[in-house]
Amino acid sequence: xxxxxxxxxxxxxxxxxxxxxxxxxxxxxxxxxxxxxxxxxxxxxxxxxxxxxxxxxxxxxxxxxxxxxxxxxxxxxxxxxxxxxxxxxxxxxxxxxxxxxxxxxxxxxxxxxxxxxxxxxxxxxxxxxxxxxxxxxxxxxxxxxxxxxxxxxxxxxxxxxxxxxxxxxxx
Length: 171
What we know:
This protein is an alpha+beta fold and about 170 residues long. The chain has three helices and 14 strands. Strands 2, 3, 5, 7, 8, 9, 10, 12 and 13 form a nine-stranded mixed sheet that branches. A five-stranded mixed sheet has the order 4-6-1-11-14. The chain is elongated.
């Protein structure tokens, strides 16, 4: 599994390098870093399985670029009080970032009172979680901090059933 992850990472980095090499000479580029943080919630853990981060540079949703993603299960509650983590990065042309999409896996959970429950994300595994950005990348904007607000995102539906309706903000 680790070998496949390394191979995929190398391919993604090579693709990003080719993309940059094929860009116009008069364009500049910057390395975009996507960072993740969270606000407090009444739970011991809120685990989100992030498999891929993609950015869209176009209004027509056809210019999605996969970033080199540190895929894994992230406990959002470990990302509070000024703590964040590097989720993904990639070299992009200096352009407007229109949207960011988190592609999720199936290992999402919440731990409440010592019991771990599955965390259902309606359509999260199919379309991913999208956030509108509309920010110009340049030498002074090369990092975006995404606040995944677990307190507003987690909803208990009955006993032991939890849904995640993500509230994502750019800080």
